[in-house]
Amino acid sequence: MVGASQAEADVLERAEAVGAALAQAGAVVLTGGRGGVMEAASRGAAQAGGLTVGILPGAERAEANRWVAVAIPTGLGELRNALLVRAADALVAVGGAYGTLSEIALGLRAGKPVIGLGSWEIEGVQAVGSAAEAAESALSRAGGRPPRPR
């Protein structure tokens, strides 16, 4: 999941709901591991019993929000966006600012499915209207990979 580190309450609610839906389906929820949409998605996934992974821009695991179970510090700053995209089977963008835009572009360039929920309207991004639709689309378009075993 990708999205802004600072977002409005309604965007955070949608991100949390997507994270929960993905976790309930058995998917690992991968984010940038910090605040905003990343924290909301991680919280939703963790509270639903899912595994959360944060690929951090800094060199310290302590940068991760408290809902990240596996924190991967990179020390790469914004360049970690490419790692996040390459590690994901599909991207769900919820809201977003320029960092989200870069992740969307990298995802499209890498041929990853990109689903947008209230995010940038860009050719190649599948726009959806709800958290449930976002999770369902990400799961169905993730290259046929089964979710992790529960």
CATH class, named Alpha Beta
Order of helices and strands: EHEHEEHEHEEH
| Tertiary shape | globular
Low-pLDDT stretches are none
Explain how this protein is built.
By secondary structure, the chain is α/β, with parallel strands linked by helices. The protein has one domain (2-140): Rossmann fold. The protein is 38% helix and 17% strand. It has helices spanning 9-24, 37-47, 80-87, 98-109, 131-140, and strands at 2-3, 29-31, 52-56, 70-73, 91-94, 114-117, 126-128. Strands 1-5-6-7 form a four-stranded parallel beta sheet, with helices on both faces. Strands 2-3-4 form a three-stranded parallel beta sheet. Helix 4 (98-109) links the parallel strand 5 and strand 6 (114-117). Helix 1 (9-24) packs parallel to helix 2, helix 1 packs across helix 5 (131-140) and helix 3 packs across helix 4. The longest helix has 16 residues, at 9-24. It is globular. The two termini are 20 Å apart.
Short précis:
By secondary structure, the protein is an alpha/beta fold.
Labels describing this entry:
alpha/beta, Rossmann fold, about 150 residues, globular, four-stranded parallel beta sheet, 5 helices
Layout of secondary structure:
Blueprint: E1 2-3, H1 9-24, E2 29-31, H2 37-47, E3 52-56, E4 70-73, H3 80-87, E5 91-94, H4 98-109, E6 114-117, E7 126-128, H5 131-140
Parallel strand pairs: 1-5, 2-3, 3-4, 5-6, 6-7
